[in-house]
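We now fix the convention by which a protein and its fold are recorded. Think of the row as the fold of the chain written in a discrete alphabet. Here is one such record, which you should read through line by line.
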Amino acid sequence: MKSKAVVLSVCTALVFGVLGAALGGWLGWRDAPALPTTEQAQAIAATAFPGVPITKTEVDPSTFDYDPGQSPVQVALVGGDDYYSGYVVLTLATDADPVRFVQTAADRLAAAGWEVDNVPDYGYAARKDQWHLTIHDSGGFPATATSADVDLVIERAEPGPVPSLTLLGALLGIALGWLLSAQPRRRPVSPWGRGPWIAGLVLLVPAAVVVVSIAVTQYLLNPATVEPMPIWDPIMTAGVRGCTLLGIVLLLAGMIVTRVVGEARPR
């Protein structure tokens, strides 16, 4: 019985750690830099593609948001599709070979002080100061020999405090989860509390797995130039958000019932 209680406490602490990491990352993004103005974006385009006409400019100033048209109630309760970061997109027309065209642009950006990487299956990505930039054809990543137009996409780079706040949130969450799950380690608890507690943990597993995979990919595998993904992103997506919110409710309900009801009654 004691070993089961320890397993329950460890799982609770880990889940709280994941939720704390997501909250820490979200707080870090509250200090996100502004996107470049249209004039600044055009100056960047002129550096990468001198003399090439810009045929279209698209701006979304939001830090992170859903595609418009989705019900606010739906996204609040169960999540939604296409949760994305704000951007400035400049479309440039070219008759040149897009692959060589983009390679030359990447070289120019590197010469202008941008950190540039050619990431497999992603295309050219660059970062300088508070902005992140990608270059690809208008159909997606990366540029191909059949491309017609090229998009230069400028987004916010991840703010400096985000990794530290993510780690701090994870550590505080683990500590809090361990403390709040102390009662089952001291004495048997009622099934009225244990049932919702375990059900809540199970429902939180999908979010926990994806959050951890994002953290590992972003901070250990991807170069700094790759577009940052918010660590709380899976909690915003359709399906996972609903499971996460229901899991939090059941987990907290199980903890509260455990404290109120107390020990399991002997049979």
In short: The radius of gyration is 23 Å. Residues 94 and 148 are 7 Å apart (CA to CA). The beta strands are 54-66, 83-93, 115-119, 123-128, 131-137, 149-156. The chain has a mean pLDDT of 84.
